[in-house]
């Protein structure tokens, strides 16, 4: 018989796993601490240690939770779809975009662990298993659909499966970036339009498919170049940005630094304003040079969006403004850095055409 204490323990473990999901989405894996998790859960750090041997065991349990939840969702969808392969394939698409399974926090968990899985066998075991099983399932269904119409010599099942998997992953990245504003119904239409173009005997083309990004802005964003008039607004954002990187709040220091940069024209600062004139994000770029190319470049050093304005296109708008500056000043490229586990930022950069450097190591000497 399950005792009351066992029920309490089970509920607290679930609470801690949910808090870990939130913490990973908020801080990433590298900045994650048991103190942050316990604070989100409303429990003491000792309670965390009572239910989990270590932070690592809690992380693995969290990864297992989202993985099993995904598997169960797919299994339920397939059971409901019956034996028809086209209906089963459609059910996988729908389950893969289910709001409960693909909420923004859980997407952050998947991409954070997936990024780390390259050097962690235990993470790779879980992430890789999900990817392989899902791929094989879709592949088998594509083969069945193709055989039904004797199209084996015209349509490659593995190629279609790769395309479906790639499309799904890109949509997951959009969810990660857009958050709760993401329109999953439009995403499903995009998937179904692809299936209809490959398997027209099984699927009808949706009447309307929105091809533009689904994470549209909730309200107009205006990007301005900061000058002395906007110094206080820029300093406020810069101070919040520094606090995000574990620095103490110091508005005076932030203002003094930016004033020096603007006065000496050492940097260019852009501020994102919302529809009512509130400063909600900024980026700071430093003009520099590449000796090898013998050309000017831009270094995008700072990019920050206030918490309440994230996942609404502000960062993308600032990045696009940076690109415009690079073109106007004749810069040959824009360089930037980001944390290894900051998967949401990486998704944004890659969606805009930025490529990760795999040729050079970064070194730094603190003085």
Low-confidence stretches: 209-218
CATH superfamily of the largest domain: Tetracycline Repressor, domain 2
**Any guess at the CATH architecture of the largest domain?**
Orthogonal Bundle
What is the number of independent domains? 2
Helix/sheet category: alpha+beta
Largest sheet, order of strands side by side?
1-2-3-4-5
Radius of gyration: 24 Å
Contiguous helical run count: 13
CATH C-level label of the largest domain: Mainly Alpha
Mean pLDDT: 86
CATH topology of the largest domain: Tetracycline Repressor, domain 2
Reading the helices and strands in chain order gives: HHHHHHHHHEHHEEEHEH
As a percent range, the share of strand residues is: 5-15%
Largest sheet: 5 strands, mixed
Helix content range of the residues, please? 55-70%
Could you tell me the number of beta strands?
A: 5
- Measured between the Cα atoms of the first and last residue, the distance is 62 Å
Q: What is the global morphology?
A: globular
Q: What brief labels describe this structure?
A:
367 residues, 13 helices, Tetracycline Repressor, domain 2, Aminopeptidase, alpha+beta, five-stranded mixed beta sheet
Account of the protein in words:
- The structure is a single chain.
- The chain is 57% helix and 10% strand.
- By secondary structure, the chain is α+β, with helices and mostly antiparallel strands.
- It folds into two domains: 53-198, Orthogonal Bundle (Tetracycline Repressor, domain 2); 222-351, 3-Layer(aba) Sandwich (Aminopeptidase), CATH 3.40.630.30.
- It has a five-stranded mixed beta sheet, with helices on both faces.
- Helix 12 (314-329) links the parallel strand 4 and strand 5.
């Amino acid at each position: 018989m399950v005792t009351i204490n066992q029920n309490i323990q089970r509920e607290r473990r679930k609470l801690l796993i949910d808090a870990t999901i939130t913490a990973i989405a908020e801080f990433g894996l590298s900045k994650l601490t048991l103190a942050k998790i316990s604070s989100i859960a409303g429990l003491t750090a000792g309670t965390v240690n009572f239910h989990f041997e270590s932070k690592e065991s809690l992380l693995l349990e969290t990864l297992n939770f989202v993985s099993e939840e995904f598997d169960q969702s797919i299994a339920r969808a397939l059971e409901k779809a019956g034996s028809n392969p086209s209906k089963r394939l459609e059910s996988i698409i729908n389950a893969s975009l289910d709001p409960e399974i693909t909420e923004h926090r859980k997407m952050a968990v998947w991409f954070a662990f997936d990024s780390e899985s390259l050097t962690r066998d235990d993470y790779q075991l879980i992430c890789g298993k999900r990817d392989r099983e899902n791929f094989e399932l879709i592949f088998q269904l594509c083969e069945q659909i193709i055989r039904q119409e004797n199209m084996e010599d015209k349509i490659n099942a593995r190629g279609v499966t790769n395309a479906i998997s790639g499309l799904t992953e890109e949509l997951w990245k959009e969810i990660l970036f857009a958050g709760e504003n993401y329109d999953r119904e439009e995403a499903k239409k995009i998937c179904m339009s692809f299936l209809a173009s490959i398997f027209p005997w099984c699927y009808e083309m949706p009447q309307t498919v929105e091809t533009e990004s689904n994470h549209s802005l909730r309200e107009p964003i205006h990007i301005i170049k900061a000058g002395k008039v906007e110094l206080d607004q820029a300093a406020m954002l810069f101070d919040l940005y520094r606090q995000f990187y574990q620095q103490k709040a110091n508005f005076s220091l932030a203002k003094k630094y930016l004033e020096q940069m603007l006065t000496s024209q050492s940097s260019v600062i852009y501020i994102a304003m919302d529809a009512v004139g509130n400063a909600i994000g900024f980026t700071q770029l430093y003009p520099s040079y590449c000796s090898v190319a013998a050309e000017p470049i831009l270094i995008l050093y700072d990019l920050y969006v206030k918490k309440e304005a994230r996942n609404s296109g502000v960062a993308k708008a600032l990045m696009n403004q940076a690109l415009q500056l690079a073109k106007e000043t004749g810069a040959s490229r824009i360089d930037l850095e980001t944390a290894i586990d900051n998967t949401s930022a990486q998704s944004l950069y890659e969606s805009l055409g930025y490529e990760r450097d795999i040729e050079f190591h970064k070194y730094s000497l603190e003085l």
